[in-house]
Design a protein that fits this description.
The chain contains 22 helices and 23 strands. It starts with a helix and ends with a helix. The strands form 4 sheets. A 9-stranded mixed beta sheet has the order 1-6-5-4-7-3-2-8-9, covered by helices on one side. A 6-stranded mixed beta sheet has the order 16-15-18-17-20-19. The protein has a 5-stranded mixed beta sheet with strand order 10-11-14-12-13, with helices on both faces. The longest helix has 25 residues, at 417-441. The chain binds adenosine-5'-triphosphate.
């Protein structure tokens, strides 16, 4: 319980030192790596008045001032090319009622399925990508498609004046029956059907749609939705599907419709922001940056970075990695390590992780948020996915894509928590393994990395029982051993538990550490002295956290990790020390111990002779850790934390003790003062003494006695 409470409190204190800091970077400096060649911009802005019957379409009436505006005759440059609604309806529109359940569901989708309205862009872009994927599949399977010289791409146009957003693709398109089947019924997914037909064909992994609801998300932001579509099958007719989402839709034939689908959203007043290029660009980059086809927004390519996690390692350049890392992490540094990992068993996972070169928590910027985004089929599901990696791995940046992840309808949540835990276990294991390899491959680089990120791993040891043993293999600490330089002759200051064990003396059963404020204190400590004499290496821990880390690790393999101040250390020394010849006889020793116990009764619980070969007169043993004491004080500063009585061992051959033994009879007043001081000195050495001010009157008394001699 106490350990748990301490760990919690310690972590809070760590978190206060660390925290969430975001660095934003303009995306504009990213270079489009995939050439978007042969962009087919349609600058022919012929516009005809809508001859389509609108008697039942109140929304369309409402919007006539927007629709009937004739766009100015323009000769637009490529980069400014907006998409316009240039198609014209021919003949009379058929009116269709949505299926009964669709009407109700449509309301739910538009009002409450999604927490963020912006995701309608993700849904429509995903549909566009699916449509193009299907057209590509037709081509690959030698089916003819109409206008096969038209490039596969998604074009998006915003118009702040008309308050419209247009999303157009050059994909498979829909004929009249498909429009009715796909857009007249919620829950029917033409894409889902397509996947089923593909069977085991690997192309199915590129299809995003599965639920048959995404399209209707555009009613969250649009009061009228027009869908112009022309099937890619040669000789197809163009159609306009139109609805205000209130219960019916109309379908009419339309002229001027290109292969694929163009969706024109007439925005509701509360959604006018989606007529702004900047807003739309941000949303595309957030969710849809990695769909498999170029997205061109108002004439400018947007998705300029390739989804590196889906590509083979050898096809990616260093520069591309750097750009990708900076894009996903919104930072400017160069990552120290990267882990590109894919597996198909037991689950299909594609992942790419980067370990940054620095972190901001050390500047007291607050706790960082998780840095790994969860994708499903290249579409972003959760940007800062919690649970994919443990909390302490929040410094890792990257992407995990798994088509096996069961999503809920809105794609905002994952349905199977157990599955995420399984994915997480695979990923953590892989990252730790990679870091272990790196630590062997280039130890000095790894040491630099650990100097920066070691705190996170220590947090992991304390909070993540499952991985503590694996993490402990990576940790490095200073030790009293003289470490050989690295292979490239760089000096080394820290060592691993594994290396320590390889240097252990044959008689040594435990791993020893000492918690001290500095190396010089460690080297002069009476606790270290007997270990030094026996040539036994001791880890030197300089901060509170490390003491916790070691006590949480507990064991490394079959070796117990103990403090040099512990009972185990005491027992080891007692069993492995040459017997010293005592100057005093047993009766005298007993009398002295009795006297000192009485003289310093308020501080001594038990007085013993020491078996440690120390050069100091007394030592406190088997006491509570000074670190734990400090933690307890931090947790409850209002309480007075008195030092409990201690077990004190005396070096009965030490000249001070021998003199004290004489003085206890010849000069009992001075002897008592000296005994008190000797015990206080031992408490100081153990790090237990709290305020040395209370010692000053006694020291003055002692000085007086010495000077009066
Ligand atoms: N741009 C498009 N081009 C061609 N067909 C489309 C297009 N948009 C939608 N469709 C068809 O309409 C169907 C329904 O689309 P909707 O977005 O509602 O669901 P979905 O994409 O199948 O699944 P999900 O809800 O998981 O996104 C699609 O499966 C597809 O057959």
């Amino acid at each position: 319980m106490l350990r748990k409470a301490l760990n919690r409190s310690l972590l809070n204190s760590i978190s206060n030192r660390v925290g969430g800091f975001k660095v934003s970077q303009p995306f504009s400096n990213l270079i489009f790596n995939k050439s978007i060649s042969n962009l087919n911009f349609n600058n022919n802005y012929s516009f005809q008045l809508n001859r389509y019957s609108t008697e039942s379409n109140s929304a369309a009436k409402l919007n006539t001032n927007l629709d009937d505006e004739i766009p100015p005759e323009t000769n637009l440059a490529l980069g400014e090319d907006p998409i316009e609604e240039t198609e014209k309806v021919v003949g009379i529109a058929d009116k269709h009622q949505f299926q009964a359940e669709t009407q109700k569901l449509l309301h739910i989708v538009a009002e409450s399925l999604y927490t963020e309205r912006e995701v309608f862009i993700r849904e429509l872009v995903s549909n566009a990508s699916d449509a193009i994927e299907k057209a590509r599949h037709m081509q690959l399977t030698n089916q003819q498609i109409m206008n096969d010289d038209v490039p596969f791409e998604i074009r998006i146009g915003t118009d702040e004046d008309k308050k419209t957003l247009i999303i157009q693709d050059t994909g498979v398109g829909m004929n009249k029956e498909e429009l009715i089947r796909n857009l007249g019924r919620i829950g029917y997914s033409g894409s889902g059907d397509f996947i089923k037909k593909l069977g085991e064909n690997p192309d199915k992994a590129s299809i995003i749609g599965q639920f048959g609801v995404g399209f209707y998300s555009c009613f969250m932001v649009g009061h009228t939705i027009k869908v112009y579509s022309k099937s890619a099958a040669p000789g197809s007719t163009g159609y306009l599907w139109e609805s205000d989402g209130s219960g019916s839709y109309t379908i009419s034939e339309a002229d001027g419709v290109s292969r694929g689908t163009k969706i024109v959203i007439h925005l509701k007043p509360n959604s006018y922001e989606y007529a702004k290029k900047a807003t739309v660009e941000t949303v595309i980059k957030k969710y849809s940056n990695f769909v498999g086809f170029p997205i061109v927004l108002n004439g400018t390519p947007v998705n300029t970075i390739r989804p590196l996690w889906t590509l083979s390692k050898s096809s990616i350049t260093e520069e591309e990695h750097k750009q990708f890392y900076q894009f996903i992490s919104k930072s400017y540094d160069t990552p120290t390590y990267r882990i590109h990992f894919s597996t198909d068993t037991p689950l299909s996972i594609r992942s790419l992780f980067y370990i940054p070169s620095q972190h901001v928590e050390k500047y007291g910027m607050g706790r960082m948020e998780p840095g790994v985004a969860l994708f499903s089929r290249k579409v972003m599901i959760q940007q800062k996915a919690k649970g994919l990696l443990p909390e302490w791995m929040r410094f890792v940046r990257g992407v995990v894509d798994s088509e096996d992840i069961p999503l809920n309808l809105s794609r905002e949540h994952l349905q199977d928590n157990g599955l995420i835990q399984r994915i997480s276990a695979v990923l953590v294991k892989r990252i730790l393994k990679h870091l272990q390899d790196e630590s062997k491959r280039d130890p000095s680089r790894f040491e630099t990395f650990m100097n920066e990120f070691g705190g996170f791993f220590k947090e992991g040891v304390i909070t993540d029982f499952k991985w503590k043993d694996e993490i402990s293999k990576l940790l490095r600490f200073e030790s009293t051993a003289e470490l050989p330089p690295t292979e490239d002759l760089k000096p080394r200051t820290t060592t691993t538990l594994e290396e320590y064990v390889s240097r252990m003396k044959p008689e040594q059963t435990h791993i020893y550490y000492i918690t001290v404020p500095s190396k010089s204190v460690a080297l002069t400590s009476p606790y270290y002295e007997p270990f030094k004499a026996k040539g036994i290496e001791v880890f030197m821990l300089y901060n509170t956290l490390d003491d916790f880390v070691f006590s949480n690790i507990g064991h490394f393999g079959d070796k117990k990790i103990v403090s040099v101040e512990s009972k185990e250390a005491e027992e080891f020394l007692a069993a492995n020390q040459e017997k010293q010849t005592d100057t005093l006889d047993q009766a005298e020793v007993s009398a002295f111990l009795q006297w000192v116990s009485d003289a310093v009764g308020n501080k001594i619980a038990m007085a013993k002779t020491t078996s440690r070969a120390i050069s100091q007169p007394a030592i406190v043993v088997d006491h509570e850790s000074a670190t734990f004491r400090r933690m307890m004080k931090m947790m409850d500063p209002s309480k007075q934390h008195d030092i409990p009585k201690q077990q004190v061992e005396f070096n009965m051959n030490h000249p001070i003790i021998l003199k004290l033994n004489q003085a206890r009879q010849s000069n009992p007043t001075v002897a008592k003062l000296a005994a008190e001081q000797i015990v206080d000195n031992a408490l100081i050495t153990a790090g237990l003494y709290e305020d040395s001010r209370e010692m000053v009157p006694r020291l003055n008394q002692l000085l007086e006695q010495v000077l009066n001699k």
